[in-house]
Specification:
With 347 residues, the chain is mostly beta strands. The chain folds into two domains: 2-178, Agglutinin, subunit A, CATH 2.90.10; 186-341, Glucose Permease (Domain IIA). The chain is built from two helices and 29 strands. It has helices spanning 306-309, 323-331; strands at residues 2-3, 42-43, 54-57, 63-65, 70-72, 78-82, 88-94, 99-106, 114-119, 125-129, 134-137, 146-150, 156-160, 166-170, 177-178, 186-187, 195-198, 209-212, 218-220, 225-230, 239-247, 250-259, 261-262, 269-270, 275-278, 289-296, 303-304, 310-311, 317-318. This is D-mannose binding lectin. GO terms for molecular function: carbohydrate binding; metalloendopeptidase activity. Residues 1-32 form the signal peptide. Pfam families: Peptidase_M23.
C-alpha cells in the first residue's frame, strides 16, 4: 500500500453542480439519474455522542456513505461526496449560488471500480469494489467506536471513542492508502479460515496446500465450472470434489480433498463461491483440513501453486511448520501472475 501526494494535475474538474444535479467530470461519467434533492443535499448526519459535523458513526457497526450524497461542512463552505467513479472528493461550496467547485482533496481512487465507502466497526475507513476487494483505506483498524467528521475547513477525520476521542486519521496532507488488488483467477476456498498447515512444496511431493479448519466448515468453489464428486477412501483422498474450469480457453482443475460431506451434485455447474462441501478428515488424514490443489489440463496435469493463483485473504498465518511459505505468499498477495508462468514457491 502506498501513501500518495495530491497534485493539481490529479484534481478533478467539474462543470456545474447544483442541489438538483449530478457531478460531471472530465474523467468520469455522471453519477446517474438519481436526483439529489434537499433531503440528501443537506447538513451532515449528526449522530448522538459524536461531535457536530459527524458524517457517519460506526459506534454500533459498519456505517456506509451513501454514493452520490452530498455532506456539507457545518459552515456549508465545503461538500464531501463519494462519486460514481469511486472517488471520494471534497469540493468548495458556494452557498449563494448553490454550486460546488474546485476540488481540494480526493482519495485518488477514480476509475478503480469503487462502489462502497464505509467506516467499519473496527475503525477503518475503506473503499471497496463490487467484488468485495478493498482498494483504499486509512489504516485505522483496531480503533473501534469510530465516527467520521467533516470540519469547517474541509478536513475529514476519523475519531475513535476507544482511543479517548483521538483523531486516528485526518485528510490534512494525507490522501489515505491505496491498496493494490491482485486479480487472480481463483478465490480462497475456505473464506472463514486463514491457517495453512502444509505448504505447496513440503517435501512430500504434495503439490497442494492444506488449509486447517474445523470439521464442518463450508468449502466454496474457487471458480466457476463443472463438478465431479467422489465418495469413499479413494487412495487416501477421502471424499473429494473436482471442478473443471475453462479459463481463457484453457482447462484447469481444482481439487478439494478430505471432505466430511459433499453438498453439490455430480455433474452440476457451479459459480465461484458456491458451497461444494464441508471440511473434514476422511481418507488418509490426521485432522480436519482441506487439501486444495490447482491442476493444469487434467487431473494428472502440472500442479500450480495456490499461493500464487488464488486471491488470498489478509492475515494468512502458519499453524505448523510452513512459516517460510506463508511469509512468501503473504508478501506477494497483491501481485497477479499468468497461469502459464507456473510461478510457485520453493517452500
Amino acid at each position: 500500500m502506498k501513501n500518495t501526494t495530491f497534485t493539481s494535475a490529479k484534481k478533478k474538474v467539474i462543470t456545474t453542480l447544483t442541489a438538483a444535479s449530478c457531478i460531471l467530470s472530465v474523467s468520469a461519467p455522471a453519477l446517474g439519474s438519481t436526483a439529489i434533492g434537499n433531503a440528501i443535499f443537506g447538513n451532515s448526519i449528526v449522530a448522538s455522542a459524536a461531535s457536530a459535523g459527524t458524517v457517519v458513526d460506526a459506534k454500533n457497526g459498519n456505517a456506509d456513505l451513501v454514493p452520490g450524497r452530498f455532506y456539507k461542512s457545518p459552515n456549508q463552505n465545503y461538500v464531501l461526496v463519494f462519486q460514481g467513479d469511486g472517488n471520494l472528493v471534497v469540493y468548495h461550496y458556494n452557498k449563494s449560488t448553490g454550486k460546488a467547485y474546485s476540488p481540494t482533496w480526493s482519495s485518488q481512487t477514480e476509475n478503480r471500480g469503487g462502489t462502497k465507502c464505509v467506516l467499519q466497526g473496527d475503525g477503518n475507513f475503506v473503499i471497496y469494489r463490487k467484488d468485495g476487494k478493498a482498494i483504499w483505506n486509512t489504516r485505522t483498524n483496531g480503533k473501534k467506536g469510530a465516527y467520521l467528521t467533516f470540519s469547517d475547513d474541509g478536513e475529514i477525520r476519523v475519531v475513535s471513542r476507544n482511543a479517548n476521542y483521538a483523531t486516528t486519521w485526518s485528510s490534512r496532507n494525507n490522501h489515505g492508502y491505496a491498496i493494490e488488488v491482485a486479480d487472480r483467477p481463483f478465490i480462497w476456498p475456505v473464506p472463514d479460515c486463514k491457517a495453512i498447515s502444509s505448504a505447496f512444496n513440503d517435501g512430500r511431493n504434495h503439490g497442494a496446500i492444506d488449509i486447517a479448519a474445523a470439521s464442518g466448515t463450508s468449502v466454496k468453489a474457487a471458480a466457476g465450472g463443472t463438478v465431479q464428486t467422489y465418495y469413499g477412501y479413494n487412495g487416501g483422498a477421502g471424499n473429494y470434489v473436482v471442478i473443471t474450469h475453462n479459463i481463457n480457453g484453457a482447462t484447469y482443475l481444482t481439487v478439494y480433498m478430505h471432505l466430511s460431506s459433499i453438498t453439490v451434485a455430480n455433474g452440476a455447474t457451479v459459480s465461484a463461491g458456491t458451497e461444494i462441501g464441508k471440511v473434514g478428515s476422511t481418507g488418509n488424514s490426521t485432522g480436519p483440513h482441506l487439501d486444495f490443489s490447482i491442476r493444469e489440463g487434467s487431473y494428472y496435469g502440472t500442479r500450480l501453486d495456490p499461493g500464487y493463483y488464488t486471491n488470498l485473504p489478509a492475515g494468512l498465518y502458519n499453524c505448523t511448520n510452513c512459516a517460510n511459505y506463508v511469509n512468501e505468499i503473504n508478501a506477494n498477495r497483491n501481485k497477479s501472475y499468468t497461469l502459464s508462468s507456473h510461478t510457485h514457491s520453493n517452500y
